[in-house]
Amino acid sequence: MLSNSRFIQQSxxxxxxxxxxxxxxxFFLEVGFTPKDSNYIDEADxxxxxxxxxxxxxxxxxxxxxxxxxxxxxxxxxxxxxxxEQASVYFTGVKIPTNITKIEQxxxxxxxxxxxxxxxxxxxxxxxxxxxxxxxxxxxxKTKLLSDVISCRIFTTNYPLLLDHILREAKFYFQLLxxxxxxxxxxxxxxxxxxxTFWNRIMAEHSKxxxxxxxxxxxxxxxTANNFGYEFDQLTIEAKEAMDNSMPIVxxxxxxxxxxxxxxxxxxxxxxxxxxxxxxxxxxxxLGDHTLREANHYLRLLKMFxxxxxxxx
Length: 313
Fold this sequence. Notes:
Radius of gyration: 19 Å
CATH architecture of the largest domain: Up-down Bundle
Oligomer: single chain
Structural class: mainly alpha
Largest sheet: none
CATH class of the largest domain: Mainly Alpha
Number of domains: 2
């Protein structure tokens, strides 16, 4: 049974990462439709604003509660997040509330002064219920959109694989949050198999999306992204083999850690290059920062897995 303090902390940490990811998914969907599909644009925009509100509410409960490790990991915000948002507002005209990011940059962690307060626990539980319903609705929207794109009923500038990718992330968020809401003890160290299989596949797909959105003249970056795609495809296979007990998970964790350190560096350089207009591509700056935060999130998990005794696996 999850303690009250861990329930509060883990719930808020999950929202600080994933609610931002979901609101950005909605933004990427919104700006990928053609004018003909204004109904899809409006629906995606409505989801974006609802996740804006969810994230803002999570932030308001998080000060002094969430861990410093999460706040300092680069998964909540990076040094580029605000500038990437501002550039994306300029390019699209979508009014992203950058004040949320400014408030988030000032969050303090780990004092846990309020973490056992019954009122805070109740508010977090209510936030989780609201989030579960919102994630469920967004997943339905993504599912319908993917079906419509595959059957050529609608055109979008987002790859079908990207639609499937962001649908899987929504389902993963829902699954983790549902377990927290049920007060299940979630020991991520013991879930290395599932997490590494999931995130290695995500990292592989990021690499392929980046490769496909770079200008054809950016040959060096294309080759680097392609190599990362191949490397993380192999790591995904290895993580699945570890689940079948045919390979030690410790080796997969070490290999995944080294690869994720490198792809995080690549995404850092890429995001900076996008913000500073030094890379030719059709990548909106916020997408670069988005993929960087996901790499940083995975890197924090891998550090936890590496510290865990082998018997915990």
